[in-house]
Amino acid sequence: MSVRNRLFAGRSSDLERRMAELEDAVQECRALNVRLAELTDVVAELLLPVAARDEARIEELLKKYRRDFS
């Protein structure tokens, strides 16, 4: 194997490792964004005036949030 091929092989494995790390980070960010969106839905429901609230919807959102993240 030539020096050039050995250098490229080393870079390739480093690049593959780095890509795997970045893909994991992206997946983590996506999961956090979903969690934030769900929490935002809960807060938005809770901020509505009492007369406009959908208590069943609030309870459903809270149960889902507690189940998914506790």
Q: Order of helices and strands, N to C?
A: HH
Please tell me what the overall shape is: rod-shaped
- What is the number of E strands? 0
- The DSSP helix count reads 2
Mean pLDDT: 82
Largest sheet: none
Question: What is the radius of gyration?
Answer: 23 Å
Question: What percentage of residues falls in helices of 4 or more residues?
Answer: over 70%
| Terminal residue distance | 53 Å
Low-confidence stretches: none
Strand content: under 5%
Structural class: mainly alpha
Task: Offer a quick outline of the entry.
With 70 residues, the protein is mostly helical. Helix content is 86%, strand content 0%.
Protein model, in words:
With 70 residues, the protein is mostly helical. It has helices at residues 3-47, 55-69.
Tell me the layout of helices and strands.
Layout: H1 3-47, H2 55-69
List keywords for this structure.
mainly alpha, 2 helices, 70 residues, 0% strand
